[in-house]
Amino acid sequence: MNDDDYSATELGSHWFEGPLPEPTPDRVEGEVLRFGPGVTAIAARRAENTPTAAQIWHGTLPGAPPPPPPRPRSRWPWRYVPAALVLVAVLAFLAWREYGPRAAVRSVAVTAPGPSLGCDGTANVVGVVRTDGRPGTLTYHWERSDGTRSAPLRETLARGQEEARLHLLWTFHGPGSHQAVARLVITSPTPHTAEGAFTYRCG
What we know:
The chain is an alpha+beta fold. It is built from 4 helices and 10 strands, in the order H-E-E-H-H-H-E-E-E-E-E-E-E-E. The radius of gyration is 58 Å and the shape is rod-shaped.
């Protein structure tokens, strides 16, 4: 290369100048520096005040009053109340009929077959028990004037039955005379006693 042909060329200043100074902010808002395009404080506040889809869906818009609390749902729908009342009434009636007051005895009477009984005859002594018509059970026994006594006996009373007829068959044999007395003793539901008399004559 011929030195005579060489010539220096002036370099542009951007080849040898040091680093460029940092850019200065294009605007100042309070104490916050903003460089170039971006979200300003006003835009940020506008974004904060813009409702989102979630806020619209859940009803939590900014500044909106809170939604009223939901009304509690009734646990026992009113439409079932009449049926429930009818069921309670039926159950109460059945319980009263089964476990309610038992039959009450109003009166007891004993009737003999007649004023006298002939030889080797059998007297049909009848005890008539009148009740109030409620169901229940009569517990009773017979006592005879010859010193004998029957075992405990029971008579079941149906609903609406206001009278029970209890029979004692008393048989006599041989000649003689005997003043017979039959006593009916009611022990339950309440104690009652009645008796009837007749005469046995033979010979």
